[in-house]
Amino acid sequence: MRRPSPAPPPAGTQAGAPAAAPGPSPRRGLGRVLAAALGVLAVLAVLFAYLAVRHREQPAAVSQARVSGLPASVSTSLANLMELSPVPSRPAPGFVLTDQDGRTMSLASFKGHAVVLEFMDPHCTDICPIVSQEFIDAQHDLGKAARQAVFIAVNVNAYHHGVTDVAAFSREHLLTTIPSWHFFTGSVASLQAVWRAYNIEVQAPSRNADVVHTSAVYFIDPAGRERFIASPMADHTAKGTAYLPATQLAAWGRGIALVTRHLTH
Questions:
Q1: Are 166 and 103 in contact (CB under 8 A)?
Q2: How far is CA 16 from CA 6, 7, 20, 122, in A?
Q3: Which terminus of the chain has fewer CB atoms gathered within 10 Å of its CB, N or C?
Q4: Which of 177, 146, 147, 166 is CA-nearest to residue 97?
Q5: Helix (H) or strand (E) holding 42
Q6: Alpha-carbon distance 190 to 185, whole Å?
Q7: Are 188 and 158 in contact (CB under 8 A)?
Q8: CA distance 165 to 128
Q9: How far apart are CA 94 and CA 84, in angstroms?
Q10: 117-130 confidence digits (pLDDT tens)
């Protein structure tokens, strides 16, 4: 007796192979993909938010960084405004020049006093008049301690280096109200030697051209050693006129006085 033949396998399968289990629903698979994508987006959103906050916080932290070795009386914000920094304590380069009153003097003659030294152009209409006002303010802020300080400038204008040039600038900007004020000048060769000694770059292509020069304030202690350096600043109007907001101008005067007082103690 013959056994009955087995039923034929479903179409698309081989005889003897097990039937495939039913596959997942296409709709369910799409949902899983969307859920995974949303998860990745959420993680990226949190990461970008964190980085944005760190980016905003970093400049503030950097701006509040304090240079070591500064006088404790000078706040970090004021030091940053002045770009104040200590320099290696070494003898300040000496010179012998003539001031606005025609007196020939040496830097060494000021030993025993704190010296505030700037480089100025007697025909300047930009930052030099601003620094002049800061010196006057510093003189007032020092009070009785001003007797232990000297404010001096060295001429950077090789075309206008006569005593009359520095005297006229001193009168015009009321620097003569500072009892210890000296605006020094001399021969071009002697001035150039001082510029080199203090790393002052000077560019003046012609007699009537603006003198472009490094603007720096050196603070020299009573022993005649360089101690600090600051970088004067100025803003400009749309027409190019130099100015400094009154609050910053007063802050600069106060800062110069604080550093000078620190050197006299």
A1: no
A2: 10, 11, 12, 108
A3: N
A4: 166
A5: helix 26-63
A6: 9
A7: yes
A8: 14
A9: 23
A10: 999 999 998 999 99
pLDDT per residue as tens digits for the range 124-172: 989 999 999 999 999 999 999 999 999 999 999 999 999 999 999 999 9
Amino acid identity at 149: A
Give the pLDDT confidence of 18-31 residue by residue, as tens digits. 444 455 555 555 55
Letter string b/e over residues 85-119, b meaning 16 or more CB atoms within 10 A of that residue's CB: eeeeeeebeebebbbbeeeebebeebeebbbbbbb
Cα distance between residue 192 and residue 180, in whole Å:
24
Q: Does domain 76-264 have CATH number 3.40.30.10?
A: yes
Cβ-Cβ contacts under 8 Å for 151 (sequence gap 6 or more): 116, 135, 138, 139, 175, 178, 180, 181, 182
